[in-house]
Automatic annotation (TrEMBL):
UniProt keyword Acetylation, yes or no: no
Keywords: 2Fe-2S, Iron, Iron-sulfur, Metal-binding, Oxidoreductase
CDD domains given in the database record: fer2
Domain 2Fe-2S ferredoxin-type: 2-78
Taxonomy, superkingdom: Bacteria
UniProt GO MF annotations: 2 iron, 2 sulfur cluster binding; metal ion binding; oxidoreductase activity
Protein name: (2Fe-2S)-binding protein
Pfam families, per database record: Fer2, Fer2_2
Length: 164
């Protein structure tokens, strides 16, 4: 067993874990943060995407021990309970960017990093940026609109109309 300390959404957590434990299982089972989903467990779908020291990673491909001493952000950290929605959350809500919602936490964490590096992305840049995250429901168009909306909000601009 290995002793690790990981800061998750700003809170330090210490745990004794098996070296083979995946980060996604630490997040979901040890910390009870079940917003991070498991779609494939084989690094294909992106549902498990979180930020590790600010960089988006598929947490089913990272060992918990690799996160030792690092900072993890999950979808739960996007907005404190009772606080106003994060621009991405608002964007997904306003643009119908989710249907079943299974892919949504991973999409939003991936989009968080994307907008941090590229605050004013084109539609093509967004499509490329989320190409590692699969959605079986939406056809992606409304996800792209949601991210464009969030980018505009973050830049202090009026988001484009959400009408089709
Ligand atoms: Fe990690 Fe699908 S569960 S990529
Ligand atoms: Fe269902 Fe994306 S909203 S998988």
């Amino acid at each position: 067993m290995k002793q690790i300390t990981v800061t998750v959404n700003g809170q330090p957590h210490s745990a004794e874990v098996e070296p083979r434990l995946l980060l996604v299982h630490l997040i979901r089972e040890n910390l009870n943060l079940t917003g991070t989903h498991i779609g494939c467990d084989t690094s294909s779908c992106g549902a498990c995407t979180v930020l590790l020291d600010g960089k988006s990673v598929k947490s089913c491909t990272v060992l918990a021990v690799q996160a030792n001493g690092k900072s993890v952000s999950t979808v739960e950290g996007l907005c404190a309970p009772g606080a106003a929605l994060n621009p991405l959350q608002e964007g997904f809500k306003e643009n119908h960017g989710l249907h079943c919602g299974f892919c949504t936490p991973g999409m939003m964490m991936r989009a968080t990093e994307l907008l941090e590096h590229n605050p004013d992305p084109t539609e093509d840049e967004i499509r490329w940026g989320i190409s590692g995250n699969l959605c079986r429901c939406t056809g992606y168009n409304n996800i792209v609109k949601a991210i464009l909306y969030a980018g505009a909000k973050m830049r202090g601009e009026e988001p484009a109309s959400t009408e089709p």
